[in-house]
Design brief:
The complex is a heterodimer of chains A (230) and B (295). Chain A is of the alpha/beta class and 230 residues long. Chain A contains seven helices and ten strands. Chain A is 32% helix and 25% strand. The longest helix of chain B has 43 residues. A four-stranded antiparallel β-sheet of chain B has the order 2-3-1-4, with helices on both faces. Chain B has 295 residues and is of the alpha+beta class. Classes of the chains: A alpha/beta (230), B alpha+beta (295). Bound molecules: adenosine-5'-triphosphate and magnesium ion (MG).
Chain lengths: 230, 295
């Protein structure tokens, strides 16, 4: 599903954000990206939805060679990928349902189908009764769930989450984590960059630990910190 | 794109306009005013041209034959001149006709001419009028080279003054019009740029969820077309209908003034203004599109 071969990324500023990354993520996997600030987690995610191109190496996502794809193809890659960020990036003047529907309207889905799917994802994130609320009338946790619903309404095969719980209190963070695991259980490949050690420890999923742009550890059913066997 | 997607783009465009109504009105007004100025000068220019043509075609070139030129030769050359390009009319004025014309012009004072008795000091001549004012001078030169012609005259000062006036009107009008057009282009470009800035987040999300670049661009293209288009419709309509009014008024009160009839030329000028306004909107978008790429 996701395959990075000898990928390096240097920003125009000269910062070398990724160095010789080798990473394979299979269909249906749940993967945590962890590591200190500046390790390159966000950069790696940005390569996956073609927000950035690798300086060298190849990035293959769902069969697309992301680094070499033509500009006109980018929208079609992105329709297969859902993305959520630490800041929720909702449109303040549109209500919850409209925010979610927006993602389908701009890819020309039929209105009847939009209504059906918006109903489904609202149920998935537990916000059916807040459909007509404006983002400003929602708590942070609810706003992030709207953002998640918007990322999922296009039925992506991959969900990328960059510190999705970074702005949430512990309870909301745990609720969000539960929904992400549920989404993964339903078949979506999930890659989540996070600093939330307790969430990683409790989920027992694959953990890819990065430092200084390189992968330092890659373990299945792992914890946030390296576990030393006694 | 589907019809409902066009509707979406149009609603996004109109939201941009409503978000900043002062700038929208400024764009429309400056476009309308600059196109109107351009239109007025174009209309003025074609009419001055038409008036000049009519005056000029009344100015005849006179080519005088040498004394005692045979009438058959004179008639032959009259035929030749009639065949030339740019000649509206040509006629032979015998010295007898010239004399009686002169007597008529002198009127009561015509008695002075009686002193001539039967002698006639005048010569036969060709009176030639041109189709276009610009043809007058070359025509005079050409006539002077004809066999038997000793000299030619025409009222050259009228011609050159008219040309200077026409060119002056054209240059001044075009310069003012173009300057104003550049001004309104800047205002339109600014309006679109502000719209882009205000919709930064929305554009980011559109790209994130896989909207095509066409769909990202169209609301702003429409915004430009609306801004330029409304100004153009105002300028085009105003210039055309007020010209029609002036024209109909002039037909009655100043029937001798050869104004250009509203169709086809003034109508085409109005259409030109319309196209220019729309083009202005399109160029405004083209200039701001780099902002869009940077989001
Ligand atoms: N757009 C950019 N231009 C230049 N340098 C950048 C850019 N984005 C990130 N960097 C640099 O690349 C390196 C990796 O940044 P990145 O954002 O990928 O780290 P991160 O692991 O996501 O960090 P955090 O946990 O703080 O989000 C850092 O040194 C950062 O300063
Ligand atoms: Mg980051």
């Amino acid at each position: 599903m996701i395959s990075l071969r000898n990928v390096s990324k240097a920003y125009p500023t000269g910062v070398s954000a990724l160095r010789n990354i080798e990473l394979e993520i299979g269909k249906g996997e749940f993967t945590f990206l962890v590591g200190p600030s500046g390790a390159g987690k966000t950069t790696l995610l940005r390569l996956l939805f073609r927000e950035e191109v690798p300086t060298s190496g190849s990035v293959i996502v769902n069969g697309h060679d992301v680094g070499r794809m033509r500009r006109q193809q980018i929208p079609y890659l992105r329709r297969q990928i859902g993305v959520v960020f630490q800041d929720f990036r909702l449109l303040p003047q549109r209500n919850v349902a409209e925010n979610i529907a927006f993602a389908l309207r701009v890819i020309e889905v039929h209105p009847r189908e939009i209504r059906r799917r918006v109903g489904q994802v609202l149920e998935l994130v537990g916000l059916t009764d807040r459909a007509t609320a404006l983002p400003a009338q929602l708590s942070g946790g609810e706003q992030q769930r709207v953002a998640l619903a918007r990322a999922m309404v296009g039925r992506p095969v991959i969900l990328l989450a960059d510190e999705p719980t970074g702005n949430l209190d512990p309870q909301n963070a745990q609720d969000m984590m539960k929904i992400l695991l549920e989404i993964n259980r339903l078949g979506t490949t999930v890659v989540m960059a996070t600093h939330a050690a307790h969430l990683v420890d409790r989920a027992r999923q694959r953990v890819v630990a990065m430092e200084d742009g390189a992968i330092q550890r890659d373990a299945l059913a792992a914890a946030y910190h390296e576990e030393v066997s006694r | 794109m589907r019809l409902r997607t066009w509707a979406f783009c149009l609603s996004e465009a109109s939201q941009n306009l409503l978000r900043n109504p002062v700038l929208a009105i400024a764009s429309i007004t400056t476009t309308a005013v600059s196109l109107l100025v351009l239109g007025v000068f174009l209309l003025l220019s074609v009419n001055v041209n038409s008036i000049a043509t009519s005056i000029e075609s009344q100015v005849a070139v006179r080519a005088f034959f040498a004394h005692q030129t045979a009438e058959s030769q004179e008639l032959a050359e009259l035929q030749t001149v009639r065949g030339w390009q740019g000649v509206r009319s040509a006629s032979l004025v015998t010295k007898d006709q010239a004399l009686s014309q002169l007597k008529k012009e002198f009127g009561k004072q015509g008695q002075v001419l009686e002193t001539l008795g039967t002698a006639n000091p005048l010569e036969d001549s060709l009176s030639v009028t041109a189709q276009k004012p610009a043809d007058v001078k070359p025509l005079a030169v050409r006539l002077s080279h004809l066999a038997g012609i000793v000299h030619t005259t025409y009222q050259s000062s009228v011609v050159s003054r008219l040309f200077a006036l026409i060119n002056g009107v054209r240059v001044v009008g075009l310069a003012i019009g173009v300057l104003l057009l550049i001004g309104s282009l800047l205002v339109i470009t600014n309006a679109i740029r502000l719209g882009i800035a205000a919709r930064r987040r929305e554009i980011g999300i559109m790209r994130l969820v896989g909207a095509t670049e066409a769909l990202v661009h169209w609301p702003f293209i429409l915004e430009g077309l609306i801004l330029g288009g409304i100004g153009a419709v105002v300028a085009s309509g105003l210039s055309f209908w007020s010209y029609v009014a002036v024209y109909h008024d002039a037909v009655h009160s100043l029937p001798f003034l050869p104004l250009v009839s509203p169709s086809p030329i003034p109508r085409d000028i109005a259409l030109l203004l319309l196209l220019l306004g729309i083009l202005l909107g399109a160029i405004g978008f083209r200039i701001s599109v780099r902002r869009l790429a940077r989001i």
